[in-house]
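Need the bound structure for dicarbonimidic diamide, inputs here:
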Amino acid sequence: MKQIQAAPYPFDFDPATLGLIVIDMQRDFIEPGGFGASLGNDVSRLGAIVPIVQQLLEGFRRSGLTIIHTRECHRPDLSDLPLSKQNRGAADLRIGDVGPMGRLLIAGEQGAEIVPALAPKSGEIVLDKPGKGAFCRTNLEEILLDKKLQHLVLAGVTTEVCVQTTMREANDRGFDCLVATDATDSYFPAFKTATIEMITAQGGIVGWAAPTNNILEALNA
Ligand code: C5J
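Answer from helper R.:
Posting the output first, comments after.
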């Protein structure tokens, strides 16, 4: 067993059962002209975590561990886009509309791709998901069980939406989850802080939190 120094207490894991899930590091959330920007967000904050997510990915690659990348996106015919999601808010551009990086949040368009610096390598799993949580209408649970994973490190964007939703879904399914605190971010700094506090409160009611350095130290130990 190995141990990551984490909040609210150390995270013990067997390296054979540890995997990394990188949530939605897509151009649509991180670059100007994408879905995140269409909602009025300042996307520059999220781009700042790319080098840290890269370090985390490299650490998992060196250790030969399972890596899963998710992408929030929909089929071109929008058949997996609930009307409630399509109609939500008052954005100028909606999911499926054409923006500077192609149709917003549509599989196959430039905006739906993972930013080049974090591009998945051969053998890594890329999972498209229509919801905020990565378990909603995907086979993620089967993938994790098939690979006999029990311990999950989560990174990506945004902390309080897709990262937190996925972590809660995983926690309820019996996985031990840790969020990499500096490899995730939100358009709203206060929401990131609050999410990490919520996750780790009450003895880790949703899981653990630790910075990337602590995770890499444990992998290298
Ligand atoms: C959002 C996400 N915020 N990946 N998606 O709509 O967090």
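Comments: Residues 1 and 191 are 33 Å apart (CA to CA). The chain has a mean pLDDT of 97.
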